[in-house]
């Protein structure tokens, strides 16, 4: 006696004609579930309202949807800020992507030469220099961005002297009239910006000397 094999089917009730603000198309299934798919996924699976999907095909669709979601999110993150591979993977998972999809998206970005930890490390350090952060704050930024330590020495090797940046900070915070307690306050702020005690003492000495001489330029 032969038994009939039945295959579970799922029907697409509707497929939005236009994408949402994130560029995804809303797909409603007859079980009430909703998928939000990027155009490429819709086209790859030839989706349309009324189409029936076998259980295995639906499973493949969900996998493809997750992978595309992670890729598109990765593109948005990288476009907005400098990130390392490890940092991007972490942020994707934090945003709700699965660990597997996040890892695949990072590999995809790397293959497209859109991720380069060495380049990202240099961008992070250049930004710290531009803001006027000290060496310690630059190291902290590299750590926060999960930059592999193999790149640290190279990008920090020629970190410039920040005396002028510290003086600019002192001028903006102290002005011409200040008291001893103001020096303590501004020194603490400079320490938080990653400058060493030695650098701060040197700049404070220059600043006070210039004040006595009534000069404002080195």
How would you sum up this structure, described in words?
- This protein has three domains: 103 residues, Arc Repressor Mutant, subunit A; 40 residues; 51 residues.
- The chain has 218 residues and is α+β, with helices and mostly antiparallel strands.
- The longest helix is centred in the N-terminal third of the chain and has 26 residues.
- The protein has ten helices and four strands.
- A four-stranded antiparallel β-sheet has the order 3-2-1-4.
- The termini are far apart.
- The N terminus is likely disordered.
CATH architecture of the largest domain: Orthogonal Bundle
The major sheet is characterized as: 4 strands, antiparallel
Gyration radius, rounded: 28 Å
Beta content comes to 5-15%
What's the β-strand tally? 4
Could you say which overall geometry the principal axes of the C-alpha atoms support?
elongated
Detail the poorly predicted runs: 1-5
Order of helices and strands: EEEHEHHHHHHHHH
CATH superfamily of the largest domain: Winged helix-like DNA-binding domain superfamily/Winged helix DNA-binding domain
Q: Mean pLDDT across all residues, rounded? A: 90
- CATH fold naming of the largest domain: Arc Repressor Mutant, subunit A
Spatial strand arrangement across the major sheet: 3-2-1-4
Can you count the helices?
A: 10
Determine the fraction of residues in helical runs and give it as a percent range: 55-70%
Number of domains: 3
CATH hierarchy, class of the largest domain: Mainly Alpha
Which structural class best describes the helix and strand composition?
A: alpha+beta
**What is the first-to-last residue Cα distance?**
99 Å
């Amino acid at each position: 006696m032969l038994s009939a094999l039945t295959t579970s089917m799922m029907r697409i009730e509707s497929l939005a004609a236009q994408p949402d603000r994130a560029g995804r198309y809303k797909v409603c299934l007859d079980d009430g579930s909703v998928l939000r798919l990027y155009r490429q996924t819709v086209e790859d699976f030839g989706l349309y309202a009324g189409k029936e999907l076998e259980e295995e095909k639906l499973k493949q669709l969900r996998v493809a949807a997750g992978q595309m979601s992670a890729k598109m999110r990765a593109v948005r993150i990288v476009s907005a800020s400098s990130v390392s591979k490890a940092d991007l993977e972490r942020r994707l998972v934090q945003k709700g992507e699965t660990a597997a999809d996040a890892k695949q998206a990072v590999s995809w970005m790397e293959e497209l030469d859109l991720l380069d930890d060495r380049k990202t490390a240099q961008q992070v350090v250049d930004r710290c220099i531009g803001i006027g952060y000290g060496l310690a704050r630059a190291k902290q930024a590299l750590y926060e961005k999960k930059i592999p330590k193999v790149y640290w020495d190279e990008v920090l090797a020629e970190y410039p002297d920040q005396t002028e940046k510290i003086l600019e900070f002192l001028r903006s915070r102290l002005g011409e009239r200040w008291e001893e307690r103001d020096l303590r306050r501004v020194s603490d702020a400079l320490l938080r910006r990653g400058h060493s005690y030695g650098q701060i003492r040197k700049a404070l000495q220059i600043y006070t000397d210039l004040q006595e001489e009534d000069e404002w330029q080195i």
